[in-house]
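Example (one chain per record):
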Amino acid sequence: MKPLRAPLLSRLLPLAAAALALASGTARAQSLLELYESARGHDASFVGAKAQFEANLAKANQALGGILPNIALSTTATRTYFDLRYDRPELPGTPAAPTPRTYGTYSGAVVLTQPLYRPAAWAAYRQGGQQLQLAAAQYEAAEQDLLVRVSQAYFDVLNAEDTLSFVQAQKKAVGEQLAAAKRNFEVGATPITGVRDAQARYDLTVTQEIAADNDLRVKRLALDLLVGTSNARPLRLRAATSLVDAPKDSLDQWVSTSEASSPLVRQAQIALEVARLEIDKAVAGHKPTVDAQIAYAGTRNINGTAVSNLDTHVFAPYAQVVMSVPLFSGFATTNRVKETQALENKAQADLEAARRSVAQATRSAYLGVMAGLSQVKAYESAEASTQSSVDANRLGYSVGVNISIDVLNAQSQLFQTKRDLAKARYDLVMTHLKLRQAAGTLTPQDLEPINALLVR
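Predicted structure:
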């Protein structure tokens, strides 16, 4: 029986990687940070969140209008036809009616109004300060979401590339096993079942290659759509390197951090404060308002007035304090107060739900990181074990102890282990980022250590 050649894996994987590089074109590969910066200016969700942040800032500043002075200019122009007629001009003592005429009245005023006591306006002003903080928390959450989405799309492409590389390497190894089985059958060293087993496994790897190639195309399209780059090519992670360290703080400390720093919790806390101030605004509907007004006003009459034929110019500046006291509004204010109190209860419940959700996400991510670290080590040990199994089965096949299906199964297990190891490494990095996102501490600077692990 003719022995097989030396182990193929060390020779097949570089060839598959080179084929992938050629298929990807000659464009320069990009790092994770480069693609993230590209996504900041292209991703529709993040661009929309940024525009919403700017709109929220402007909306919060609108509350100043309720407590700062307001200045208004008003002017009127009136043209009047005047024709006085007496009902009984024949009565003694009735004066002669004046001649019909037309006169004009022009008036104007500049009025400065300074609110002195407006409880609703001051509550709205305090709401504006809370809304500024809410806008910042919403923008921070959108930025963290973009970080995770770009990283996920980045590692999805790398994982798809690895899968295709391993399938192509497996296909080549199975092809050589098929050729060996055919030669051995021709010389009568093995039965036909060895050829058929190898052929069936080869056909299966062909279908897996088609699926892996299609999956890679889809993942690349998703990354291109996210970052706005045609044919984005992510840099690869270095092999056999420590990706992330185990969390130094305990699980309870991470949960405490998330409850204090998570943008989602802060949004719920701010929403509760806004709801409480909304109650103050509603209650203010029962209270009076006091404004101070100063006006520079004047009136000019051309061709006189109804009682005079003389042109006049009246200058009438004034200062006044205006108080308005609400007496009855058809129970609208009372029901508005009830509405805002119910909305405060809802905001309190939403805050509790946000705290529970963030705590659960933090616990899941923390346990995921710890499990991921152990899983990567286990897969690394499994990789060495399955490689030894492949070598042993090949040797046994060459001496007639094992049959072809034993070698094929060992090869399949080796490539599956390698795929699982690669995926576990990417999942570990993503779980680490999601842990920081759940805790509310994720920033673009957290991508720099990952960037340092990329092969340039």
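Caption: Residues 149 and 331 are 50 Å apart (CA to CA).
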